[in-house]
Amino acid sequence: MKLALGTVQFGLPYGATNKQGQVGAGEIERILARARAAGIDLLDTAAAYGTSEDALGASDEARAGFSIVTKTQPLRLESIDAEAVERVVDGVRRSVRRLHVAALDGLLVHHAPDLLAPGGDRLYDALQSLRAEGLVRRLGASVYTVDQLLTLLERYPLEIVQLPMNVLDQAFLQTGTLDRLAPGGIEVHVRSIFLQGILLAERLPRALQALEPGWSRFQECCAQGGLSPLQGCLAYLKTCEQVSYGVVGVEDSAQLGQILDAWEGLEGRTLPDFTGCNMAPEKMLNPSNWPAVERLNE
């Protein structure tokens, strides 16, 4: 597995534990320079990430050796008609212009149900046309659940999938779903490695006490293995051979440095077995089910 840089914080004050807000232009340059120097070669963004695409397009560093994966504007409609498809296609063209690239290395459908709704095949055909034009090299989808991914795979020849996975949410691994992707050459990108920083916090927020059994087991595994929680989160993904990229987001270059140091510090170490930390299918593993950030900070 390689690390990829997530850029939602470049366009939004994102994250349940984010205390610094949206990253400024100068810090974006420092983050990207440090990432490139460390060998990170993939940036993950989306049309829905506020001004993230604009920030990357304005950055000299972003155009210096990085591949870029972005995502379509979510539709969230009961059915996909020609007008909706046109909106998505126009949005992709805007993304290419904002990013100042000749072509996107990857384009993910941000809201996977857009492909599963009536007319979703029309949307996918339109995205394939963009690839035929040379604006997109690979197509895929961002998913939340195993069932969602399996249904998509029955209908579409995806080349990239992005999915949530961490020590508490091992559903895609333990159901054998990841093993089904490799024979088809599907590249797997994993997000939510730190569960929006919750796995790195000194204590579990009161509003997320449903996760306490797995969270406590994770703390014990890290202590027994002589790992920090940051190393523990990365160690779990490092043991998953089916994963191509782990997407990490940061608020400043110092945070990225900590992640890089933790990653390098795992080399050659015997890593703990985190199987017992799994809490899937607990609904609170999905941040969309979380209460307001103010309550998480209590």
Automatic annotation (TrEMBL):
Pfam families, per the entry: Aldo_ket_red
Database matches in InterPro entries: AKR (IPR020471), NAD(P)_OxRdtase_dom_sf (IPR036812), NADP_OxRdtase_dom (IPR023210)
Gene3D superfamilies reported for this sequence: NADP-dependent oxidoreductase domain
Entry coiled-coil feature ranges: none
GO cellular component: cytosol
GO MF: oxidoreductase activity
Domain annotation NADP-dependent oxidoreductase: ranges: 2-264
Protein name as catalogued: Aldo/keto reductase
The organism of origin for this protein: Achromobacter insuavis AXX-A
UniProt lineage: Bacteria, Pseudomonadati, Pseudomonadota, Betaproteobacteria, Burkholderiales
